[in-house]
């Protein structure tokens, strides 16, 4: 299998395996799905950390308002009594007024946070370092773990406006957010390798031949953005090692230069005639006028 190291710009994301007979259209579809799936997992994990800390989100018309404003406007969260965490709630006020403050107890909080860590690890960028390829099945497994943890902590479910529920039901609305700029549309995606766009309608072997024991760095790009920057000839780690080697070599050369210094010959201890003069009583003779 060919290993594709998928990058977006200079940022490394994940490894993907494919056969040389794989069509570029299929590669774009699968890589885009995994790319967007990892983003979804990341968004849910961020929201679940807030869920564990401050409870479910308030209705949109109540978010950001102070307690006095809620009283004046006679607004009440109808989901507050319906979406109670398992084992009872612990009040932890949300200072930004986005969540209702009825957080899960410590046991349920631990379940949520542990699951978040496990889901992140499953699709982490660190998988590249250990040569583990990320698949769509792994993304779905991470989503299933997160869904299960939410069901354990909130058996009655989350309100329909909660972003976690919306993400798990594929109803999220990212318009106007920074997250929307990161999501890629399959129809707008391109794969680049060796400064060449991999054209749809062709196969992977049209670019690399029939060698299926190779590893490629491919960059995923939106149409119209032009060719991505070329990969550097040496990696950051290789550059660090080269600089370290250069520094050590310079230190060695310094020591060698110091070893060749013969100024020590002027020192008293290096005078071969000193012992002879001492026996002859000539050690304290000084020349010149007094």
TrEMBL record:
<comment type="similarity">
    <text>Belongs to the CFAP298 family.</text>
</comment>
<dbReference type="Pfam" id="PF11069">
    <property type="entry name" value="CFAP298"/>
</dbReference>
<protein>
    <submittedName>
        <fullName>Cilia and flagella associated protein 298</fullName>
    </submittedName>
</protein>
<dbReference type="GO" id="GO:0003352">
    <property type="term" value="P:regulation of cilium movement"/>
</dbReference>
<dbReference type="InterPro" id="IPR021298">
    <property type="entry name" value="CFAP298"/>
</dbReference>
């Amino acid at each position: 299998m060919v290993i594709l190291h998928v990058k977006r710009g200079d940022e490394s994301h994940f490894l993907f395996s494919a056969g040389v007979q794989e069509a570029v259209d299929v590669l774009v579809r699968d890589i885009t799905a995994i790319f967007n799936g990892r983003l979804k997992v990341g968004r849910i994990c961020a929201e679940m950390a807030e869920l564990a800390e401050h409870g479910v989100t308030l209705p949109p018309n109540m978010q950001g308002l102070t307690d006095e404003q809620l009283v004046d406007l006679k607004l009440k969260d109808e989901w507050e009594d319906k979406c109670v965490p398992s084992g009872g709630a612990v009040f932890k006020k949300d200072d930004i007024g986005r969540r209702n403050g009825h957080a899960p107890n410590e046991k349920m909080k631990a379940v949520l946070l542990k699951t978040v860590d496990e889901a992140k690890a499953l699709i982490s960028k660190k998988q590249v370092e250990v040569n583990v390829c990320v698949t769509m099945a792994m993304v779905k497994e991470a989503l299933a773990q997160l869904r299960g943890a939410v069901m354990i902590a909130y058996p009655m479910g989350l309100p329909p406006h909660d972003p976690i529920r919306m993400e798990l039901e594929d109803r999220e609305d990212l318009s106007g957010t920074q997250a929307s700029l990161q999501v890629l549309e399959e129809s707008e995606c391109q794969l680049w390798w060796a400064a060449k766009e991999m054209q749809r309608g062709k196969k992977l072997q049209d670019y690399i031949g029939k060698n299926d024991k190779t590893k490629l760095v491919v960059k995923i790009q939106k149409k119209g953005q032009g060719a991505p920057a070329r990969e550097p000839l040496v990696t950051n780690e290789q550059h660090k090692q080269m600089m370290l080697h250069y520094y050590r070599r310079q230190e060695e050369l310094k020591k060698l230069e110091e070893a060749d210094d013969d100024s020590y010959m002027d020192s008293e201890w290096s005078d071969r005639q000193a012992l002879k003069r001492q026996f002859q009583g000539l050690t304290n003779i000084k020349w010149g006028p007094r």
